TrEMBL record:
GO terms for biological process: regulation of DNA-templated transcription. GO terms for cellular component: nucleus. Belongs to the lin-54 family. Residues 658-683 have a biased composition (Low complexity). Signal peptide: none annotated. Residues 706-818 form the CRC domain. Residues 658-700 are annotated as: Disordered. Pfam families: TCR. It comes from Zootermopsis nevadensis (Dampwood termite). Residues 685-700 have a biased composition (Polar residues). The keyword Nucleus applies. Keywords: Nucleus. It comes from the Eukaryota. This is Lin-54-like protein.
Length: 931
DNA sequence: GAGTTTGAAACT
DNA sequence: CAGTTTCAAACTC
């Protein structure tokens, strides 16, 4: 049984594991000071009851620790007000369906790992609507993520491109692929406790994230539980649970996840994001008292990072710092600060200090990293704390009202000090590469850092940290007790937060795709649930008419139902794209404009048809083959705000189709006008509102390069028999059976690719290349035809419309190079040869005749009395005769006379020649006779 | 559309 | 590396 509970840390057993929703603290933008209140929501998970595929057990225990529905209502109201005040987009998520429901207690017996992914939809701008680009630009620049070799257990969450309404972004991406992408958000929680309690879910983000908790690079998703003032967590991959020490209480602001110590002695540090600069603010509100901030103190770095981590293995981890204002003297007004940490900069991160004015500083520090202090005033300025809301938050409020601070980043305008929960740089390994060829070190793309949002345990409120720099995303939040269909937030109108009505059944079996209808009916989100096994990937993709679709891996807490959705934003994404043809030596980097906007990546196989690439803020390094495809037929769309998701074109089409289907089925309407003009490839015909990128491409209207569908039946499309696979493409719209050439079987696919490459390193290279000489195409390997004469499509050379070359081993090849010019030359040669033969024959005949005449025995002088003309048969006469005959032959050929006619003409000419000779001789003789 | 042919890929 | 088998596309009817 899984209980969704509001957090009452004090009441929870220390050893219990709970999944807690961590709200990311969104620093306010330009709006008036917003209240800074964080809600720490915990989800008690009965690990024993949680099956890998069953989240249906989510219930709300009835005990004093739990929020009641009214509390949730209050939270909602507060949230709404905060949203209004801060004009920020908050991301809320509801973990668990029945927040108000059952009193089932947790009977935890087993560790449940769940991956929660949130599909966010970019609606243009970042949550902080105020010049997000200006916020922490340097961080974006510094943020890089390595997506290679991420643990498969991580499920990444990709953030859709901000303004993208593109179908391209309506794509389904496997979780592993997401992890491979920088902006993936990995959200894994482990429930290990048998008793209900509050827990904190540590969200790992492969990319630098706004907030990061912990951990060793090699660690899998971490689960942190707050129990009885202690934070305990379990990090996947670690042998045992990690007890997070030095967090006495979660009550006060000072409470921060600092260190975790595993049962086996491993200590995990909870580190803040890479904050290079301390943020100092003065508290003017006065709402926060020192007492409130007591809890905020730098934690002793008593923990050490797990030794397993290496720099290369480091991955970003989201750590959310929950700061609880002692409201009304009671616990429960947690203020959550989200910090992010990149693995690389793990040690360089700066903790966030929250300093109360006049009382000194209370540090919310994350161990091992520099401390960044924020005064209350600053907090207010940043929107973390609003004077009005602050009082509500502040102590003595018996109510458990929690305010989700949904502004993590403050606009630089408001506060020069930038609180960036984002790591300057993050190197994250990606467990899965979307590209087929698992070649290491091929390509890295700088990409925006994504921010992960925590899942709201109760009340379904989860605040997501949205980085201003990042392109706006929509976060789909499942509403629990909150009003269904309520979209929290966003003054920007971008709808950063999408609340999914609790009534919507987002949950499905593991691996299933759940449909989420976005509020307003303008968009559908498809969430694929994934079990925590890690092998399965889940994707969440949203489809909308004109909206950007984000595909986000979604993990379901027990595999059964997506308990929550988390979102993340990406600032810069480092996408490592591995070309399917590893041999491609050249790696081209496409550096989009640095607009401060994050883009979502478009994942494409190296050889896959790339319909469009939007050159936005992302820095994408593409394999040479990919680039070639891009250059050949793809369109690179400049976009300053969009993120790119590279997928096989067919996936785009697939998503589009799904979108259409869903549109038709659910009869949803795009009720939201989208100002975003930079859409990715949009093949949706109904997307008339703005020019589709697809229209600018050279591809088909659907944005897909024509491709023959395969019909594989036995190869699972994982062998080179399959053209799709051989071309590095995913099967789409194929007729294949038991196809594994898709994202759902990415692991198998990768293995198959590896196997193929082992057999033939050039397996995925184009078979047709340029010959040594010139640019003439030729089959690199050559054909081996035996029967077809290389004149049927069985022959690869013939199919490629190229003549067989020396590389071929074909038998009886008739696929010879026959160009028009060469045919002409050949004909000429043959004609010349024939002519020569004819001439020779004629010449010989004439010569014979002449000789016959010449050597004829002279008649007796008595008979003729005349001299024989052979006396005139000099060499000159013979040459002249031959020339005449040859000229006649040529004339006959020129006239295209038949051979017979030609011979006749030549003979006639020869006769004339003889006549002339005779006449000449006769004259000569006549002249000499009378003498 | 079923059956045959063909040659690349995979296997031995 | 060669021979054989498997496979899917091409082809034929």
């Amino acid at each position: 049984m899984l209980n969704v509970r509001c957090i009452r840390q004090s009441s929870r057993p220390r050893n219990d594991w709970y999944m807690t929703v961590i709200n990311e603290l969104i620093v306010g933008g330009t709006k008036p000071l917003g209240g800074a209140r964080a809600v720490v929501e915990t989800l008690g998970l009965d690990a024993g009851a949680l099956g890998d595929g069953d989240l249906s057990a989510l219930t709300l225990p009835h005990n004093s620790d739990q929020f009641i529905s009214s509390d949730l209502e209050t939270l909602v109201n507060i949230q709404a007000e905060l949203d209004r005040l801060n004009s920020t987009v908050g991301v809320e998520e509801t973990l668990g369906e029945d927040l108000e429901g059952g009193a089932d207690s947790l009977a935890v017996g087993e560790t449940v790992e769940s991956v929660v992914t949130v599909v966010s939809e970019d609606h243009g701008r970042s949550v902080v609507a105020h010049s997000p680009e200006a916020i922490l630009p340097e961080i974006m620049e510094e943020t890089t993520t390595t997506v290679e070799d991420m643990d498969m257990h991580e499920i990444g969450m990709s953030s859709p491109s901000p303004e993208a309404e593109d179908p391209l972004q309506q794509q389904e991406i496997s979780a592993t692929q997401f992890t491979s992408v920088s902006n993936n958000l990995t959200f894994t929680s482990t429930v290990a406790s048998k008793t209900p309690g509050s827990s904190i879910v540590v969200i790992q983000s492969p990319v630098a994230s706004s907030a990061s908790v912990i951990t060793s690079p090699s660690l899998a998703p971490t689960h942190v539980t707050v129990s009885g003032g202690q934070i305990v967590g379990k990090i996947a991959g670690m042998s045992s649970n990690v007890a997070i020490t030095s967090v006495p209480q979660f009550q006060s602001l000072g409470q921060t996840l600092v260190t975790a110590k595993s049962a086996d002695g491993n200590i995990v540090q909870l580190r803040p994001a890479n904050l290079n600069r301390p943020v100092m603010t003065s508290s003017t509100a006065g709402n926060l008292t020192t007492a409130n901030l007591q809890g905020i103190k730098p934690l002793q770095a008593t923990t050490k990072r797990p030794a397993t981590g290496t720099a290369g293995q480091m991955r970003n981890v989201f750590a959310k710092v929950i700061i609880t204002g002692n409201q009304h003297g009671q616990q429960g007004q947690p203020i959550m600060l989200a910090t992010s940490q990149a693995g690389e900069t793990f040690c360089s991160g700066q903790p966030i200090k929250i300093i109360s004015s006049g009382t000194g500083q209370s540090n919310v520090s994350l161990l091992g990293s520099p401390t960044k202090a924020i005064t209350l005033a600053q907090a207010q300025q940043m929107g973390l704390l609003s004077p009005t809301k602050l009082q509500q938050i502040l102590p003595s409020s018996p109510t458990k009202q929690s305010i989700i601070v949904n502004k993590l980043m403050s606009s630089p305008v408001k506060s020069p000090a930038k609180i960036t929960m984002m790591p300057a740089s993050a190197v994250v390994k990606s467990p899965t590469k979307i590209l087929p060829a698992p070649v290491s070190g091929v390509t890295q793309l700088k990409s925006a850092v994504s921010i992960a949002s925590a899942v709201g345990g109760i009340g379904g409120t989860v605040s997501t940290t949205v980085k201003p720099l990042l392109s706006p995303q929509k976060v789909i939040i499942r509403q629990g007790a909150l009003k269904s269909g309520t979209v929290l937030t966003s003054s920007s109108g971008t709808g950063q937060v999408i609340r999914i009505p609790a009534t919507q059944n987002v949950v499905g079996t593991s691996g299933s795709i759940a449909q989420l209808q976005m509020p307003g009916g303008r968009q559908l989100q498809y969430v694929r649930l994934v079990s925590s096994s890690g092998s399965n990937t889940s994707t969440v993709m949203s489809t909308g008419k004109s909206r950007t679709t984000s595909v986000v891996p979604v993990s379901a807490v027990s595999g059964g139902k997506p308990v929550s959705l988390s979102t993340m934003r990406s600032q810069q994404q480092t996408v490592k794209m591995v070309p399917i043809a590893p041999a491609s030596p050249a790696v081209r980097t496409v550096v989009p404009k640095s607009t401060g906007q994050t883009g979502q990546r478009i994942l494409i196989p190296a050889s896959a048809p790339v319909t469009q690439l939007r050159a936005g803020s992302n820095i994408a390094t593409l394999s040479a083959s990919a680039v070639n495809q891009i250059t050949s037929g793809a369109t690179i769309l400049p976009s300053g705000t969009s993120s790119y998701v590279m997928l096989p074109a067919q996936y785009v089409h697939q998503l589009q189709n799904q979108s259409h289907q869903q549109q038709s089925i659910l009869n949803t309407h795009n009720t939201v006008s989208h100002s975003s003009s930079n859409s990715a490839a949009s093949a949706e015909p109904h997307n008339q509102s703005r020019p589709s990128v697809a229209t600018r491409t050279t591809l088909e209207p659907n944005g897909i390069r024509p491709r023959k569908p395969c019909n594989c039946t036995k190869s699972q499309c994982l062998k080179l028999y399959c053209d799709c696979f051989a071309n590095g493409e995913f099967c789409h719209m194929c007729n294949c059976n038991n196809c594994f050439n898709n994202l759902e079987h990415e692991e198998d696919r990768q293995r198959a690719i590896k196997s193929c490459l082992e057999r033939n390193p050039n397996a995925f290279r184009p078979k047709i290349g340029k010959g040594i000489v010139g640019d003439e195409r030729r089959h690199n390997k050559g054909c081996n035809c035996k029967r077809s004469g290389c004149l049927k499509n069985y022959c690869e050379c013939y199919e490629a419309k190229i003549p067989c070359s020396n590389n071929c081993k074909c038998v009886g090849c008739r696929n010879v190079e026959e160009t028009c010019d060469k045919n002409t030359l050949r004909d000429l040669a043959e004609a010349a040869e024939v002519r020569v033969q004819q001439q020779t024959a004629i010449k010989n005949k004439l010569s014979a005749q002449i000789q016959d005449i010449a050597f004829r025995p002279p008649p007796p002088p008595a008979q003729s009395g005349t001299r024989q003309p052979f006396n005139f048969m000099t060499q000159e006469v013979l040459d002249a005769t031959c020339m005449c005959l040859l000229a006649q032959a040529e004339e006959a050929e020129r006239m295209e006379n038949s051979e017979e006619e030609a011979e006749r003409f030549i003979i006639e000419e020869f006769g004339r020649c003889l006549v002339q000779i005779i006449e000449c001789a006769t004259k000569t003789e006549a002249n000499s006779m009378p003498i």
